Predict the 3D structure of the following.
Amino acid sequence: MALKQSKVTVVDVARAAGVSKSTVSLVLQGSSLVNEATRAKVGAVIRELGYVYNRSAANLRQSKSKIVGIVVNDLTNSFFAELAVGMDMVVQSAGYIQFMANSAENPDRQAEVIASMREHGMAGLILSPARGTTSADLRPLVDSGIPVVLVARNVPGLKVSSVVSDGHAGAAAAVRHLIELGHRRIAFLGGFNDTAVFDERMRGFRDALVEAGLDASDELVISSAPSRAGGVTAVERLLAMADRPTAALCFNDAVAFGACDGLRSARIEPGVDFGVIGFDDVIEAKTAVPALTTVSVDPQGMGRRAAQLLLKQINSGDFEPEALVASVRLVVRESCGAARRTKREAMTA
């Protein structure tokens, strides 16, 4: 017996088509992530069952919702975990319920969880985009009238609010510090060159080297996964170079920790025989051995600002994009070798 139109739900469509609810939602949103065969199959089932997508009702539910979606690209990284903590503090104190998900740097997974959040009628979304996210991936969400705030990473061509850090200024300050310590051959370790964050930090790295008249060639840039394991891999490649650098700026603190591990495995002491600077200033940076010199971007503060910006848009109904660029500062500890230099200068004074 055919289902009555008034009772047909997304679940009914998904079951009949043999796909997930999120896939049906993506089809209804016109997402490019669904292949044509699946789109046609779901479309045929929608017509057969007589399902009607009531966008007005969906938007009305969303406008009254107290649910905020938070999607983070890598919760295993301390930086993004702290970012999430900052968002949580603001969202909860404002009386909203948060739905949090980890995309694990997978745009398909990201699309699935966002679609699921939309089904629950979220009032807005804070997103730290997965690698490879395009404006086309998120445009249906933005066009539906749901406020979106990007944090930590931007998506080129997408006109939504964002909160990012000044990666160029931070990287330049770090390299200048290493130059002041006497280093003349400096490497950049970790990260992938298909993200805006990598590009900004890379430009800061190179600009500071060129400013000082030093080598800024491609061989000094060693890409790897932005993780501790990636840091080990990158420093192993660095140590195999004929003209070995004496210091490195790392894409983030996780890579810096891995670089220190790799140096020790080669019986090279970070902060004594080799200068290391990280980026982010996660909680573990201060207690690491040696304590990590790093560019502080205050991840919890960034998370708080992103949540405040989203709630402001939800409450005012004004979704005019705002771009906030958080200032950064270099925190000098032991891993760059500054403490050793200070001690040496004191002994010769």
Summary: Confidence is low (pLDDT under 50) at residues 1-5, 342-349. DSSP finds 14 helices and twelve strands in the chain. The CA atoms of residues 191 and 226 lie 5 Å apart.
